[in-house]
Please model this.
Amino acid sequence: MPPLPSLTVIVLNWNGRSYLPSCLHALADQDYPTFQTVLVDNASTDDSVAFVQTHFPQTTIIQNKTNLGFAAGNNVALRQLQTDMAVLLNPDVVLAPDALRQMALVMQQDPQIGIVGCKLHYPGGRLIQHAGGYLTPPQAMPGHFGILEEDKGQYDAQRDVEYVIGAAMAIRQEALTAVNHFDEGYFLYFEDTDFCTKARQAGFRVVYAPIAHGIHVESAVTRKESLSYTQRFHSGRWRYLLKHQPLTSLLTETVAAEHDWLGKLDKAQQTMMLLVYRTIRGQIPAICQERGEEAAPFYRVLETLSQRVLALQEQDDRLVQLEAQAVVEERPFASNTPIIGFLIVRFREAWNSVAAKWHVRPLLQQQNAFNQLVAQQLREQQAWLRSQQQGWQISETSELLAEISRLQQQIAVLQTRLDELERRGK
Model:
């Protein structure tokens, strides 16, 4: 049997201090002959770095000045890789003692195996979290085989899959070179899916290896119910779609499916999706240059979906309620007097017609006209604001693209701060 390949484990960390002891102790217990461990810290504000320096001094530490996200953060270490393999590991993953060796053995089965992923369980080890991944067309909604299923051995067969998650992913050096590292246009989510897709396009296999397994505390440093999670997740999904979906199906099947899906979201989620569509527009020029296609159809896709969100929100906005309530109606006289009510009602109706209606009717007409005018003016103002929003076009000049890039970096910094606040408030 050939010797096991040289190996580097890269643990990407952002404020994962509470998870690092279990993760790094599990690495120390691996039965792999020798390997290097690198902690890449994305500007943590807890004492992650100090803890590792004190308790795991053999670990190489790379400290990034800012939170670079998953793709760029891992690339810092991957660009320095000098071993045959790299294993990417989240700090909230605890590997079984033979996991590294099993991944390496699977990699040795075929030189075309470029990526190997583990079977991952939720804490407790009974329920499956990941047994290989798949995408649901035409929206590229991701899924995990076996998720939340009790593990009864039903996913114990090794097989090729569309993608495996970066929480525990082994990468062959040759595949890394062929793909040219992770796409740093992703901040968090879909960068592993994108990497696997490009590896398969380059002729490498992506293999799920259940013989290698571990525990994964999924989304340990992100909150899936948060709007920042929604924005990042769907920004990644749409970058993936714009990069890999054939234009014909993007214009037809994807738009139609997204159109229906948007109608099932609540108003806050719809608003966040509008932000996603508007923000992702800035990435179209570079993506289309890579694809070798014209940008106009891709802009049209995002504008169509933006209009869908605006139309959905218009259906139940307060202007509709205002228009419905803008008409003041005359109310018939009613008497609660039971005995002689009939005569009294007739007399009072006659008196009201003779006296009150002559004065009240002009007031009603005036109020109705005023209310309708207010509603009309509000609608015109809303239409004007929408036209200004719709009229925004992305220029392909270098100056504006540089400004877009600067703003996107500011958004990433703000999202990092928001995640920190959400983590503290959890």
Notes: The radius of gyration is 30 Å. The mean pLDDT is 84.
